[in-house]
Structure formats: structure tokens, C-alpha cells
Amino acid sequence: MNNPSLPTLDDPENLSEKAARVWESATAGETAGAADRALGRTKEKATEVLQSGERLLREHPGTSALGVFGAGMLVGALVA
Prior knowledge:
Blueprint: H1 12-25, H2 28-59, H3 61-79
């Protein structure tokens, strides 16, 4: 369970030194690559959700309109 490369609170004097070593071990390229992958997955998921919502609206326009009307009434009642 004890990983020597991770800073712990057992030795407060060496905490900043250990944290600096861990921080330096992660390269900018790895971080940028991880961020790019996360952004790509997020875009894919957002596209799927958008397409799913559009399909639902096209298949059930009446139910969607009633749902929006009900949500508007609820917000109006809360605000008033």
C-alpha cells in the first residue's frame, strides 16, 4: 500500500520534495494526450446524447411538448 514515490504526511519536511518529484515525473505530452483523449470521448458522448434527444423529439412530439409545458408551469409556480 505504501508507494515510496507518492508524498505522505508521515514526513512533513520531505513532502514538498516528494511532491515535486512526482509532479516532474508526469510529462507534458502524457498530460496533453490524456486531455485530448478525454475531450474526444466527451465530444462523442455529447453527439450521442444530442442524436438521442433529436430522435426522441421526432418520435414523440406531443409528449415532448407536454413535458416542456409542464416544466414551464413548474418553474413558473416556483418563481411566483
